[in-house]
Automatic annotation (TrEMBL):
Residues 29-115 form the Cyclic nucleotide-binding domain. It comes from Agaribacillus aureus. InterPro entries: cNMP-bd_dom (IPR000595), cNMP-bd_dom_sf (IPR018490), RmlC-like_jellyroll (IPR014710). Pfam families: cNMP_binding (PF00027). PROSITE patterns: CNMP_BINDING_3. This is Cyclic nucleotide-binding domain-containing protein. It comes from the Bacteria.
Amino acid sequence: MSLYRAFRKALEEGAPIQDENWSHIRPLLKLRHFKKGEYIIREGQVEDYLSAVASGCVRHFIVKGDHQVSFEFAFENELSNSYASFLSRQPSRIFIEAMEDVCLVSLHHNSLQELYKDSAVGERIGRLTTENYYIWREQRELMLLTLSPEELYLDLLSNYPVYINRIPQKYLASYLQVKPESLSRIKRRIYTNRNRT
């Protein structure tokens, strides 16, 4: 499958994109490659791209005092960018880092503006990305407000095992808002309980 299809698959989380519409988007996309540990965007830079992950995994985080606080990860066929910066053209307040060697399929902000002017396709991209982002954000906020760290870990284990398998523990602990040693205790407790049943 073409790497470029990652962008289409990410957008089609909302609804299918017709082939004739995709034919307007595809020529405007570019592949960008990052090595593990490279920054895709740093705090203070303006986000120029709407991207989907074609291969690899990225981490979104902020720096709070001496600590990095991870709040989002994106894997294959998922969108990833500093969305507020992309829309507002203001400096990003977040960092995005390649956690593995990463290939992104990216649409430049200027190209999206051209799509807005030339066809309904651009409007559709803007609407779908906004809808997907806010759905994700509300779900994430509700989970953080209503579930304990152990319940959050169990949810990842059941529904998003890729988080458990591919995210280093220190970043996963930050995402769950606990210290790494607390996450170790949670994991031990869960696996001990499972072995008893």
